[in-house]
Design goal:
two-stranded antiparallel ribbon; 2 domains; about 350 residues
Length: about 350
Amino acid sequence: MRSIRFDVLGLAMVVGAGCGSGDAPDGGSDPSLDGAYALADLLPHPADVEVLTPESSALSAVEWDPYYTLTRQVSGDVNSLVTNWLEVIHDIVRLTPVAESEDSWAWGPFHQGEGGLGPTTEYFFAERHPDGTYSYALMEAARADEDDGDAYVGIVAGKVLGGSGVEDSFGWFAVDFTAAASMDPTRETVGQAVFAYDFTGTYTAEWGGGPLVMSVLDDVSEVEGEGASGTYAYYRRPDGAGVLDLRVQEDIGASASEELWEIRSRWTADGAGRSDGRIAGGDLGATVVTLHDCWAETFTTVWYEDDSGWNEPAGSESACAFADESFPSPLPAWMAALSG
C-alpha cells in the first residue's frame, strides 16, 4: 500500500493511498472516532444554508416585480455555489477516516465524477484545536499526480467556531472555484467565495431568532462570463418568511466607475415582499438614491417609488406587506471581518 505525506492545516499527515474510506458506525459507536463525528454533527447540511425565496407557479406572461425577480435570481445563484461543495464535505465527514491522531483526521482518496471518469483525486483533513474549534481543508490533485503530496492544492478550507450541534453552531468555509476549475474541465465557475453561518439566533433576535447565512463573492462567474462580487446576508424563518441583504458593486453610469447598491428584501410566508435600497458612489458622486418596491402574493408590483426620478412611481405603499422601510443591517463582527 502506497503512502502520501501531506502538510496542511499545520498537520503532517501520512495516509495510505490504497485505503478505502468505509462507512461510519451507527450512532457514533466507535469511541475513537468521537472527535471526527463531532465535526460531522457541527457542520450544516446544504439544506440548512439555502436561501429559500417564494416561488411563482404563474405563467411567464405575468410581469413579475423586478425586485422580487432580483431576489429570486440572487438566491438561486448563491445556493448553487454554496451547496455543491458543502454537500461533498458533509458526505465525507460521515465516513471513517483513513488516518487519525487524537485530534486530527484524514479521509480519502476520493475521485469526483461518474465511475472512473473523475480527473481528480481528493483528500479531506480536519483538526480539533484546544479551544474546541475545528479547522478543515479539501485538497485536490490531478489523478496522474495523486501520489505526489506536493501536487495537491486547496479547494475548500473552513473552520467551525463553536456550538454543541448544528442547531447552534457557527463557522465559515471558503471555496477557490478557480483552483477547482483548473483541476476539472467540466467545472465552469471561477473566482473565490467565503460562506459563513450562525445558527445561534444571536443576531436575528429582531426577527424572532433563526439562522443567519452570509456569502462573500469575489469575481465569481462562469469561465468566460462577467464576474460578480458582493456580500449577501440571509435570514429565514421556519414558516418560509425571510430577509435578504445585498451589498454589491455594479456599474450603472456612463463611466466604468461602479456604484454601491445596498438592498434589503423581506418577504412573508405567503410570498408578498418589500425591497428598500440605497445606491451611492461612482457616477452618482455625493448623491444617494433611495428606492422602495413592494410586490403582492402574486409577485406583481403593488408599489414603487424612488427619490431621483429613475422610474415612474406606481401603486400605493398601503398595499405593501411591510409598512416600514428597512435597510441592510451591519454584519456580526466576525462575519464582517471575513467580508474584508
